[in-house]
Every structure is written in C-alpha cells, then in structure tokens.
Amino acid sequence: MTATTPHPVSSRYRDPEFTTLPRTNLTVELQLAHRSVRAFLDAPVGDEELTTLVAAAQSASTSSNLQAWSVIAVRDPARRDRLATLAGDQDFIRRAPLFLVWLADLGRAARLAASQRASLDATRYLESTILGFVDASLAAQNAVLAAESLGLGTVFVGAIRDAPDAVAAELHLPDRVFATFGLAVGVPDPAESAGVKPRLPQQVVLHREVYDDSDDSLIGDYDTRLAQYNAEHSRSAGWITPVLKRLADRDSLKGRDRLRDHLRAQGLPSQ
Amino acid sequence: MTATTPHPVSSRYRDPEFTTLPRTNLTVELQLAHRSVRAFLDAPVGDEELTTLVAAAQSASTSSNLQAWSVIAVRDPARRDRLATLAGDQDFIRRAPLFLVWLADLGRAARLAASQRASLDATRYLESTILGFVDASLAAQNAVLAAESLGLGTVFVGAIRDAPDAVAAELHLPDRVFATFGLAVGVPDPAESAGVKPRLPQQVVLHREVYDDSDDSLIGDYDTRLAQYNAEHSRSAGWITPVLKRLADRDSLKGRDRLRDHLRAQGLPSQ
Predict the structure, then answer these.
(1) What's the Cα-to-Cα distance from A125 to each of A8, A94, A226, B156, B204, rounded to whole Å?
(2) Which among A36, B58, B89, B161 is most buried, taking Cβ atoms within 10 Å?
C-alpha cells in the first residue's frame, strides 16, 4: 500500500462519503483546490501574467458577444491604499501587487452609439445592468483560474460596492460604467494557513427537474463541518448564524442598500 | 522547420501581432479554446459528469460564503421542450441531453430565517439580487470549463429571462429564487463548424490605473476581423451594428425590460 494524496474533493466537502470523483483531471482538480488568498509575498505580478489573465477572461462567454465589461489593473500603491480604505479597509489590497477592478461596461457601446447618433435606450433597464455584472463575473472567474494555474493567488473584494461614488471618481469611470467587484492578485505567502473552505453538500444546491428543498435537512451537518473547519483556522461559528446575520437587515449591507442610487448616478438607472 | 499547431490565442484575437502567450499552460489553453456549442451528438451526459460539474461550480468563490445559488439539472425531454419554447424557441435546448438552469437563490437563507423567526430584510435590496446573479455566474463559468475539460460542449441561454414567470412555474421555483440563465450541455457534434469567436483587442477592455477610452479607436479593426470570421461561418455583420441594434431600445430586450417586475414577483423586489 502506498500513501496517496487525497483528492481535493474531500477537502471541498469534508464528507467522508464523498472523497473522490469518477470523472476528474488536472483542470478540475485545480478548480477544486481553489481558496481565497489574502497574504501575499513581496513579489510582483508582471505584464506577462496579466496578459494571460485578460486573455482567459475574454475567452469566457458573453451575452450576444456584447463584451459588456472591462477591467482596470491597479498597481500604483497610493491608489491601492485609497481603494483599500474605501473597500472596508481591507489591508491585503495594499499588500497585493495587483488589484483588478472588474467593471460592468455599457459605456463602450454608449460611446459608439453617440458617435453614430443612435439610441441606446436598452441600457436604462435592470436587464442591461445585470448583463454587465454577469459578463464581468464570467470573465473574472476565468481570470481567477488562469491566475491559479500560474501559481498566483486571488481574493474577490465585493466591498468596493460599499462606496461606489468614491470608487468611480478614483478610477475615472465614465457614463454607464460601474465597478462590480475587485480582485486582489499576488504570489501566495506559503506561511498563510488558509485552507479549502468546505461547501454545502451537493444535494442541497443541485436539484433535479424541479426545485426541491427537501435536502435542506442536510444543512445542519454542513453547519457542523464548517464550524469544525473554522475552529481549525482560529475562527468560530458555522454557516447558519453568519448567513442570517449577513442578510438580516438594511444595516448589514453596509451602505450597499443604496446600490440602485449609485447605479443611477453612473448612468445605469436599472429600471 | 516542423509544422506546429497555432496557439489558441491567435484564433481568440485574430491579431497577427498577438499569436502566442509568454505564460501559458494546458488550463489556459483550454480556456482560450472555448466556443459555444449548439449542435450535440445523440449521447447522454451522465451523473458522473454532472457530479464533476457541480463540484467545480461549488469550488468557485461566493460572496461571504453565502452560496446564494442553486442549479436545476433538467433531462426530461418534455420539460426541455417546454423550456426551449419559453427561451426563444432555441431548438438546441431540445437536443442537448442536459439543460442546467442556474438560479440566484436567496430562498435557502430565507427558509432558514423563517424556521428561526429571524428577519431577512437585506434580501429586499438590489445588492442581494445581484449577489445571487454574481454567485451563480462564477459557479456556472467553473462548470463550463469543467465540462470542456471532460470533452463536453456548452452554450449559455440568457433567453430564459424572456418569460421568467412561466419558467418559475415550470421549475417550481419558491420564494426568493430566480432563474438567471440556462446552460445546454452535451457531446459536441464534430460536424458542426462553429469556431472560436474573436474578441475585442485586449487594449480595449484592459485599462491601467484608471479608465481610459483612447483605445476605442481599435474597435474598427475588430469590427473588420469579426466580419471576416462571420463570413467564414456563413454569417454577416461585424460587431458595431449588431451591438447597437441589440441595445437600441426597450423592444430589443424582448420582454426583459420587465425584469424588475419579475424579480419582485419571485420575492426579490430589488429596491
């Protein structure tokens, strides 16, 4: 008998009955091993890596090939410092050499329309705003995996939606362009102990033919597994309590309850 | 001199000055080779593959670990037929053996809150709705790449947002759950000629430090390249004309201008 490395699906679920996949390969195993990295070495991420990340991002699907997104690569330490302050004062944004800000971008099409005196009224509707968020998300997820395939680590920063007006000013965002989320990118510090966070059992998120909430009953087990994982990483709590706290009321949104107002201010009224 | 296969980045951009990547690997090349597949062999996609796709999807990042998404695997031909009719009568939904419907799911948290008599008022705001769309998108993009790594092909179907009320009824969607987009999955028909669609030049979507629209001037070249690609695939038009048409007015949204009303009907008022 030889010692073998456990398949990454076992860390992903921490379910003793789900320790391997019948259909697997190196790309899938890279995906399964994803973790958010918040501690980076003092090492640059070069333009060569950035080119690969953007090429991967652009290879994702985009609704009707509209490509309704852009990305801003922020390296300037002073700008990262200001963005960190705006985004919940998360210090890792100051320490990551590269901070990517993903934009829902209906502005490019709007500038084309203006140059041809064409109407672009569809950008007034929530559908178009959401299309921009979805396009940016598909692109960003490809960039995350490309980064990981190059040995880099990343973490998403939704908190740049806490103060969208200041973020828009900082990044010179034009009409109909909105900063959806940030992504800190760097070389992971091997001394950081962050592990692979276990997720809900597959049965809870995967439904067959129609929505079926009967497997909600497994959430209690998951709460226990996540509490165990968190305890190993010097954190407390399982899943249920933080989820309920995070979604309890307007205050728990930390200003993001005003998202529609901010979108409107950027020319996306999201009707 | 030996014949070599061109790097997939050359098809992705069709830019004679951008034919390789200094930092590349098999995962990146799989991403770059992505194409939407709309013709499938009469071959099943098994539960083993589905398990891998969902494990990959669950490995994507999720805001605050809320996991505010679910997926419904639709295999029943009669149900796929009805969904195809609702989604712009796109026949490939009938022919793909597996149709995945990705859901923004705040309902799971709402059911937990109800069982504990806790408030969940934050789900009333657009921020939470968009969080569900972003979570579903990150998950789906991982599933797409996992599918491609197993030799399967996929295509996104945004048109299930054309008739959200009928889709919600068909899929028994409960309170605070919304169908964001579909994904047809199957074994690609090798007889289909669909190629890798070229994207905008990197300079147009990648900004440095701040947003900069000066590279919009390259869009004309791209329009020509895409027209060339389309001509090779028996289609016409470049990029600018279809984009302007797609976003011209309310009518071009094919009913999706009512997205906010439909979200409200599903318990997501998106204030």
Answers:
(1) 42, 35, 39, 21, 24
(2) B58
